[in-house]
């Protein structure tokens, strides 16, 4: 599992840095949904809307956002879905500081790992966007321990939710093995340099780990939308090149430039994809579920 240091390595450059290339309204640092959208801002609203529907967030819902980023999903749930409260957890100190400053008593945020969530508190809905990739390390995968990590995560989610609840999950998934030196180089760079302590699940990993706890209600694969999202981030990064280099250094600029290009290539080739899934909590776990 990615450590707090691993997460902060990538997400804690500076809140002002991410503002320069993310959408203006929600600072959503994940794939947008481009169906009918012409701008990054519209695509991110589409994404939040879909995940809210996948989680069945409605008026009066108490929601949990696992890996809440800069609070965009929570703001959307409260303002557009009329949820009654939104709790977010993150391991990023900068994101925690940002959300803590919200002038909204319906929002709470904790600097914590999902493993430490209190099972006494129950939520009506869970959303997790772009966090699942950080739950199992490459070492976990090599040792074949990743399934146990994912299983523990879904069991925790089951334990902290009410009967009949839904879970809206968005995560990058790996589709196939690299077929060229370039693909191998891109994947190594993403998992070693950009997102240390992380690895990518397969769809089968998710299905197997959730079995008996959650049933798949809806599922979409939209990897091409991530390529378009990355292209928008790259364009905005280049537009702000001078400012970024002056404020944060040339190393930060070139690192993110290479990251967006490599990730875009991986999505374009079909090496990886983007999964959005609606999971329905089963009413009672079978006797054989631990």
* Average pLDDT over all residues: 93
- Label the overall shape: globular
Helix content: 40-55%
- For this structure, what is the CATH class? Alpha Beta
The largest sheet has its strands arranged as 3-2-1-4-5-7-6
* The CATH architecture: 3-Layer(aba) Sandwich
Account of the protein in words:
The chain is an alpha/beta fold. It has one domain: Rossmann fold, CATH 3.40.50. Helix content is 45%, strand content 19%. It is built from twelve helices and seven strands. A seven-stranded mixed beta sheet has the order 3-2-1-4-5-7-6, sandwiched between helices. β2, α5 and β3 form a beta-alpha-beta unit. α7 crosses α9, α8 packs across α12 and α11 crosses α12. The protein starts with a helix and ends in a 9-residue tail after the last strand. The model has no long low-confidence stretch (mean pLDDT 93).
Topology:
Blueprint: H1 4-11, H2 15-19, H3 40-54, E1 62-66, H4 72-79, E2 85-90, H5 93-100, E3 107-111, E4 123-129, H6 138-142, H7 146-159, E5 161-174, H8 181-194, H9 203-210, E6 214-221, H10 223-239, H11 241-248, H12 250-269, E7 272-281
Parallel strand pairs: 1-2, 1-4, 2-3, 4-5
Antiparallel strand pairs: 5-7, 6-7
């Amino acid at each position: 599992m990615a450590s707090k240091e691993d997460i902060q390595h990538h997400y804690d450059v500076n809140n002002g840095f991410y503002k320069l290339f993310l959408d203006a309204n929600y600072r959503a640092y994940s794939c947008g949904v481009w169906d009918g959208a012409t701008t990054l801002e519209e695509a991110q609203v589409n994404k939040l809307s879909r995940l809210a529907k996948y989680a069945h967030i409605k008026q009066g819902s108490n929601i949990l956002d696992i890996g809440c980023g800069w609070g965009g999903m929570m703001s959307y749930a409260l303002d557009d879905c009329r949820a009654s409260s939104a709790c977010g957890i993150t391991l990023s100190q900068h994101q925690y500081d940002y959300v803590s400053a919200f002038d909204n008593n319906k929002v709470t945020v904790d600097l914590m790992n999902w493993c430490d969530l209190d099972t006494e508190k129950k939520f009506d809905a869970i959303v997790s966007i772009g966090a699942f990739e950080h739950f199992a390390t490459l070492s976990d995968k090599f040792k074949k321990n990743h399934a146990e990590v994912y299983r523990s995560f879904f069991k925790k989610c089951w334990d902290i939710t009410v009967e009949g609840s839904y879970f809206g999950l968005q995560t990058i998934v790996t589709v196939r093995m690299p077929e060229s030196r370039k693909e191998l180089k891109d994947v190594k760079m993403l998992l070693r340099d950009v997102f240390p302590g992380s690895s990518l699940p397969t769809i089968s990993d998710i299905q197997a780990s959730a079995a008996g706890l959650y049933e798949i209600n809806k599922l979409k694969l939209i990897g091409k939308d991530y390529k378009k999202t990355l292209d928008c981030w790259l364009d905005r990064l280049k537009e702000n090149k001078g400012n970024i280099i002056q404020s944060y250094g040339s190393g930060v600029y070139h690192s993110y430039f290479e990251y967006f290009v490599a990730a875009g290539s991986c999505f374009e080739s079909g090496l990886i994809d983007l999964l959005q899934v609606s999971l329905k909590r089963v009413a009672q776990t079978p006797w054989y579920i631990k």
